[in-house]
Amino acid sequence: MSAHGHWLKSRVTGSASLIATLLGLLVLTFFIGRALPVDPVLAVVGEHASEAVYERTRMEMGLDQPLPVQFARYLGRVLHADLGTSVVSGQPVLRDLASFFPATLELATVAMLMGALVGIPAGVLAAVHRNRWPDVLVRITGLVGYSAPVFWLGIVGLVVFYVTLGWVGGPGRLDTLYQYSIEERTGLVLMDTLLAGSWDGFVNALSHLLLPAVVLAWHTAAYLSRMTRALMIDELNSEYILAARMKGLSDWRVVWRHAFINIRVPLLTSSALAYAYLLEGAVVTETVFAWPGIGMYITQSLFSADLPAVLGATTLIGLLFLMLNRFVDWLYPRLDARIKP
Amino acid sequence: MNMPVSPQLQELQPAADHGTAHARWRWVFDQPLMAMGVLILLALLVAACAGQWAPHDPYVQALSERLQPPSAAHWFGTDQLGRDIFSRVLHGARYTLLIVLMAAVSVAPVGMAVGLCAGYFGGALETVLMRITDIFMAFPRLLLALALAAALGPGLENAVLAIAVSAWPPYARQARAEAKRLREREFIWASRLAGASHFRILLRHLLPLCASSALVRLTLDLAGMILIAAGLGFLGLGAQPPTPEWGAMVAAGRQILAPYWWVATLPGLAIFLVSLALNLVGDGLRDALDPRAGR
Question: What DSSP letter does each residue of A104-153 carry, written as one string?
Fold first, then answer.
């Protein structure tokens, strides 16, 4: 087969597998929705509805149709960006999600930046001083980040830094003082306060953001430092590094200009995956910090048994997760010339 | 973790006496971090068994003694209903152990069965099975468990089921890769020619060869399962009150952090220690079984 034909074939199978995975994702959420022990018709009409009303609602909801037909309708709705209507807010789930998403985006992005800025240099440091105290320190700190439940870290953080020391803002995104005076434009509080020209508001928003972001970033930093350390050790053991050292290059130059440059591609892809995992970590963290993002939306919907909202949000995060994964697969060969697309 | 052993220590160690229990277990204690992990896990086991000797009844309420700070009488203090938190944490060890054991005995076999069949038979079966695996892997784990637990309703059994459903795919991938590599080997051909059935080959030849890597993965995975179980409990989807499940206990103390900090933080410490111990043991096992991975 010609090189071009091969490229075309891999492109086609790639798209087909993406579509198959997306379809599978929807089948999964559809069946989770059907597994529920509560009768969805009763949830709408109430327990005292007559037989006739019950039957009519059942037909209106399409529940008298065979499962494949029901799934096809569900699929059609999802393709038209209709994730159902939340039972609690009475709004389309997608509109709810759009208003909750910026808070999660802001938290996850700040946590990602912190995690990368701490985790990657720490991993390099650990690799360079392998099996000596900086390495042990980085590994143990990382292990704690891996092992501690996020919600517990958040609670301990609140007890120490908010309740006892008063260094940071408490739960929520802003003090009540600022909550209604800052106009919402982007949905990102840090941006909104700056756009409103309120420096005090910005500092206040930052003090609220700091603790949840650090809690989330700890896990990210642990993951990234572990990856960086393993990659750097492999790199530092290779012969070109020995050659560079024999040429008399400084340690700094060997480590950063030679070894680190060569691990930047796998590191970038790991970072993208870490970002995807932050979406997951955010669910629990937001609950602890009353942070009005997707995570808090999901848990609130859980408590009020609002299944369309839970499944809608799950589908959305599943899609984002899948897209980030695919993006990484797409990015990798484009950054590393040794791998063919 | 390959902690360097100091020369003095090496001299003190007796010459290798193979076969005795001492020699068999010494490698565990040569790694201080792993030894720490093993000790914490032993403590968990003891706690799970010793529940009935706990200083107080974990369910009995004593409203006159509510929200007492940690003291000699109540090591971890008491909660809103005057129950002794230390006794509740001890009892909670059982539920944690139960969740982990149930998830472990269901996850690894299911994942391996899928992976072995896919890798051994290949073809369309492999494509279908691995595509299904990919779909489950496309979801963030906690979220899948969350959606499942929400749909099935809260409870310990449903939490276990939700964890199991979200945790099996990596085992399938790993087993498939190994089965694919092994099926081309001569001894598999030889047993086919000798008339062994596919089922026999899968069960007697491939399964034992893939088991050790699955075991290492499982040890490292158990920490993650504990965290997800605790997360579900924290969100109110695990064992229901008054069951002393650790995640639920943290959630119960959440609203009264100040000044009653011990109600939420001390049960959380137990979750942290067990998950830390499993990570330490998992790292140690991986270093011991696969010297390349631990460098």
Answer: HHHHHHHHHHHHHHHHHHHHHHHHHTTTSHHHHHHHHHHHHHHHS-HHHH
Q: How far apart are CA B30 and CA A148, in angstroms?
A: 25
Q: With CB atoms and an 8 Å threshold, state whether A284 touches B132.
A: no
Contact B117, B125 (CB under 8 A): yes
Q: Which sign does the torsion angle of CA A23, A24, A28, A29 carry? A: negative
CB atoms within 10 A of CB A71: 17
What are the tokens at B71?
């003291």
Here the ipTM equals 0.79
Residue A87, classed as helix, strand or coil, is coil
State how far the Cα of B101 lies from the Cα of A84, in Å rounded to an integer: 38
Measured between beta carbons, the chain A residues lying within 8 angstroms of B261 are 159, 163
**End-to-end Cα distance, chain A:** 16
Cβ distance A24 to B223 less than 8 Å, yes or no, reads no
What sign does the CA torsion over B160, A280, A211, A267 have? positive
| Phi, psi (degrees; rounded to nearest 5) at B78 | -125, 160
Q: Which residue on chain A is closest to B3 by alpha carbon?
A: A131
Report residue A308 CA to chain centroid gap. 21
Taking the CA of residue A253 and the nearest CA in chain B, the distance in Å comes to: 23
Q: How far apart, in whole angstroms, are the C-alpha atoms of residue A294 and residue A308? A: 14
Query: Residue B25 is encoded by which pair of tokens?
Result: 């277990």
Q: Please state whether A32 falls in left (phi above 0), alpha (psi between -120 and 50) or beta.
A: alpha
Q: Is B21 at the interface with chain A, CB within 8 A?
A: no
Tens-digit pLDDT profile for residues A259-305:
888 888 888 878 887 887 887 778 888 888 888 888 888 888 877 77
Chain A residues whose beta carbon lies within 8 Å of the beta carbon of residue B135: 21, 24-25, 27-28
Query: Which residues in chain A touch residue B258, judged by CB atoms under 8 angstroms apart?
Result: 159, 163
- Helices assigned H by DSSP within B194-260: 198-200, 207-234, 246-252
B275:A148 CB<8 A: yes
Nearest to B131 among A24, A143, A298 (CB): A24
Q: Which residues of B touch A151 (CB under 8 A)?
A: 230-231, 234, 247, 250, 268
Q: Do B258 and A325 touch (CB under 8 A)?
A: no
Closest residue of chain A to B127, computed from CA coordinates: A17
The pTM (predicted TM-score) of the whole model is 0.81
CA dihedral B195, B198, B199, B203 (to 10 degrees): 90
Amino acid B101: pLDDT: 85
* Continuous segment of H or E residues that includes residue B270: helix B261-289
Helix (H, G, I), strand (E, B) or coil at B84: strand
pLDDT, residue A124, reads 93
Residues 6+ apart with CB under 8 A from A226: A123, A139, A142
Q: Which of A189-203, A213-227, A245-259, B142-156 has the highest mean pLDDT?
A: A213-227
Selected residues 88-147 of chain B with any CB under 8 Å from a CB in chain A: 131-132, 134-136, 138-144, 146-147
- Residue A12 predicted with pLDDT over 70: no
- Helical segments of chain A, H only: 3-34, 40-45, 51-60, 67-79, 93-128, 133-147, 150-157, 176-179, 189-195, 199-236, 239-246, 251-252, 261-288, 294-303, 307-335
